[in-house]
């Protein structure tokens, strides 16, 4: 039996008035595949992510998760089905500790809102899971620190911890390296590399060092259209891609 792609987008279009922000975009991500989405500012990358996650309703086209068209599903339904994007910083609870933030996501992944009433076994299972996540992200020592006291780079790692606690099948990251130091970016790359193999990743990023190091393939979006999809080497050496994007970035 042929396995359905983890994520499939077919003929997606989105218009804001006369602005065609997404134009007949089609691509698929096999299970466990790591794809970068690159392109100039204003190309429509974030708008595309918003349509995949359900923040924006496309004008036409379909988004399928494991073969099921989810275009009419709510954001929450999509998350429950395994389509998760990293949280925005302002969606973290600043007055709660790192552990408590991650716990809320781990509970949400089980359709729960609080640990009250859970069995001891269930609680310790969740505690082990949180411990593992914090360890993967190098956040163990910061577990009891309030999020509001964390430096920016650490908060971004907490966002990823929350996303992972939701047990994604497809993880969408929109510029996770923005505002991070080189050292924090290398932690981020290590974390992304250590993700469970079955998770498909779509990462929007302007940091080409990260993209070339991490991605298995790259799609290039220009003015709402996919210009190219290929391996890192193919896209990197493509003359048109260099002309419209890479060549302007001194890489
Ligand atoms: N809600 C909206 N209403 C109207 N136009 C919008 C809306 N959201 C985005 N746009 C426009 O859509 C275009 C694509 O924006 P988008 O943010 O998706 O680009 P991007 O590729 O993510 O850019 P960047 O690399 O700067 O993050 C831009 O021209 C933007 O002004
Ligand atoms: Mg964007």
UniProtKB/TrEMBL annotation:
One Pfam family from the record: ABC_tran
UniProt-recorded Gene Ontology molecular function terms: ATP binding; ATP hydrolysis activity
Keywords annotated in UniProt: ATP-binding, Nucleotide-binding, Transport
Residue ranges occupied by any ABC transporter domain in the UniProt entry: 7-248
Known role: Involved in beta-(1-->2)glucan export. Transmembrane domains (TMD) form a pore in the inner membrane and the ATP-binding domain (NBD) is responsible for energy generation.
GO cellular component, one term: plasma membrane
CDD domains referenced in this protein's UniProt entry, alphabetically: ABC_Mj1267_LivG_branched
Protein name: Branched-chain amino acid transport system ATP-binding protein
